[in-house]
UniProtKB/TrEMBL annotation:
Keyword Disulfide bond applies: yes
Subunit structure: Monomer.
Source organism phylogeny: Bacteria, Pseudomonadati, Bacteroidota, Chitinophagia, Chitinophagales
Originating organism: Chitinophaga oryzae
Residues forming coiled coils: none
Entry-linked PANTHER family: AHPC_TSA FAMILY PROTEIN, THIOREDOXIN-DEPENDENT PEROXIDE REDUCTASE
Name assigned to this protein: thioredoxin-dependent peroxiredoxin
Function per UniProt: Thiol-specific peroxidase that catalyzes the reduction of hydrogen peroxide and organic hydroperoxides to water and alcohols, respectively. Plays a role in cell protection against oxidative stress by detoxifying peroxides and as sensor of hydrogen peroxide-mediated signaling events.
GO molecular function, one term: thioredoxin peroxidase activity
Pfam families reported in the protein's UniProt record: AhpC-TSA
Key words of the record: Antioxidant, Disulfide bond, Oxidoreductase, Peroxidase, Redox-active center
Protein's UniProt keywords contain Cytoplasm: no
Annotated NCBIfam families: PRK09437.1
Active-site positions on this chain: 46
Amino acid sequence: MVNLKEGDKAPVFKGKDQHGKTVSLTDLKGKRVVLYFYPKDMTPGCTAQACNLRDNYSALTKKGYEVIGVSADSEQSHLKFIEKYELPFTLLADDDHKIVNLYGVWGEKQMMGRKYDGIHRTTFLINEKGVIDHIIKKPDTKNHTEEILELWSRKEA
């Protein structure tokens, strides 16, 4: 399992978005990237997180941040999620787990005593040079944008 740290070069990913278009980290060179991994479209926590990012999207884009969400759901599932909640950012379908494995966020989880493999909710804040500035291992789904802005404002100070 990959164990990325702050200061590491962000692994270059490539995946299909909700429209089947290929998106790569290299396409985003020179931009700050909020790369957030979440377990599943349409679930309560994932919806709260996506809606928090949606509601504060203009604050993020004004600072030059590009938001990219990644889960193992299909392109069609992402499209429904985006349409239902009017999400203004890109979601990547990672049904083959290449991106989640590259970032080390796929692994054993436990819910109600049951163990299973899945995505660990994690956000990587990647700077313009492609370096990981911050890793948020357990994002506050309802206040995620505030966490992001706070971390990056400390970096700029």
